[in-house]
Amino acid sequence: MKYFDPHVHMTSRTTDDYTAMASAGIRVIVEPAFWLGQPRTEVGSFIDYFNSLLGWERFRASQFGIRHFCTLGLNPKEANNPRLAEGVIDLLPRYLQKDGVVAVGEVGFDDQTAAEERVFICQVELAREFGLPVLIHTPHRDKKKGTLRSISVVRDLKFPEERVLIDHNNEETLPLVLDTGCWAGHSVYPNTKMDEQRMAKLVKEYGSKRIIVNSAADWGVSDPLKVPKTAAVMREAGISEAMIEKIMWSNPADFFAQSDNLSLADIDRRPNINQTELFEGNSVLRGQTPVVD
Amino acid sequence: MNEVLAAILRKRLAPQAWSWVEKALAATQPPVHANTVLGYYAGASRRAGKQALQLDPDETARVRAVDPELEIGLWGVDEAVRALLLLSLTHMPADDYADLVLRCYELGDSREQQSWLRALFLLPKPERFVNTATDACRTNIQPLFEAIACENPYPIRYFPELNFNQMVVKALFSRIELKRIVGLGKRHNSELARMTFDYQREREAAGRSVPEDIWLALVPGLPVENVPRVLTYLSDPSPNHRYWLAVALGTRMDAAGRDALEARRGIEPDTRVAKAIQTSLEALNQLRT
Ligand SMILES: [Zn+2]
């Protein structure tokens, strides 16, 4: 089966990860712009980060036969730095028009401060202006309230709910999201967030409509194979192939296709691998024999 | 505080290291060259070492005399040197001082930032640095988070409620013992109770364990109708759950937990827990009279 991981931070991962992901059947990924672990102190750091998501990382993925898309935005943690926030919001209109940007995100709440809310609202407005869906990060701490507040931001702005993906849900927040028209993401991430067994249980209880699963793999202890691994657990739990394919492929594809920047016909074809290609003179290979399909 | 720190450091540093500190202190006197000071601030770990201060009783008494909530025994020698440097610059004009102090943080590696956070509440007008301190709580580097959250009186005195509550809940997520948060008992509030009560139910819904000391943050401000929802943990197999819940119930301003504590008193097998139950019951009975 082919898989779509709609939330994975590949800039923190190695080429071994790409190899393993490709051989596990992962064909399309979306990399949301997020926090790098170390707080940035200059707007210029965001320019370079956005450029690397659009450039080098997409190229790196393509070398393993994986299509790479991204979402761009200012994450809630760094929204608390007023100087950065203003500068990044100014940059976004230029970047949101670029090829391969399939949503504004990750935006939302972390500590649930007033500054976070301002920057969140501003970016939902940008999404409307540039015709993009929105990917919303929900906080680890005080998650239920953060989820409810995110939903009311979307509703107050009358942003179309079917163009909103609310991520990192758990047992407490999923029913709240399904009560709206928004899509519900689940991050299968070791120790925190969701795990495979709980995910299978949720699907048995709530079905597959507007349900999305991702690995959210990043620089923490995480696993970029969680999408195929969760599919395997679902299969064992007796969930039908059709339902699994809907959750692990069609749902994320349909959601991000609303951006007009990802074509369903396109992603159905596996891109040809040509590792002899260079990106601005660089290859991901360091002395190995290139693979050519 | 300067003399107290200097005396503590002189006792612990080899002559060579101490003379380096003296040179650094001389550089804090006018005319101050910011880059020179920043260099000394950065160099403290390599020159003075990072071993913990571990005060003797006499030194502890002298530190406590400066502020009863001040706890520096776990500071590294380098951190004490950095605190002394910041405290020796206070003669500077207020704005220049604030600029230089902030640059020490912004240009610092995580150890320098950690030292800065620990010394923060000793500085003049420490409230002007509150945005940097709350921002530091967003780190994923645990020692850095602990430097502001633990054994540090700054948050209880200067954090707005929202940031204080977020810090407490983050400590729970990071498995940091809540008793390390200075003054938590004085700062409990209904919003913190709601956040931690939601967290208890979220963990239960996910089939995961609840942190054993969550009760310290959850119970004092919990609405009385929700108290029965936590009392089951008085018979939890883990004595730590029973202990912290018994302690926390004793801090409530009503006696909502008294009957449950009474009932548990007769059958509690663990002596530490039994003692906590006894102490809490005494406090609650005091409330009645
Ligand atoms: Zn993420």
Describe the overall structure.
The complex is a heterodimer of chains A (about 290) and B (about 290). Chain A has about 290 residues and is an alpha/beta fold. Chain A has a single domain, classed as Metal-dependent hydrolases (TIM Barrel). Chain A has eleven helices and eight strands. Chain A has an eight-stranded parallel beta sheet, with helices on both faces. In chain A, α4 links the parallel β3 and β4. Chain A is globular. The two termini of chain A are about 20 Å apart. By secondary structure, chain B is mostly helical. Chain B folds into two domains: about 160 residues, no CATH class; about 100 residues. Chain B has 17 helices and no strands. The longest helix of chain B is centred in the last third of the chain and has 18 residues. Chain B is elongated. The two termini of chain B are about 45 Å apart. The interface between A and B is medium-sized, with 22 and 21 residues. The complex binds zinc ion. The site of zinc ion (ZN) has 6 residues of chain A, from loops.
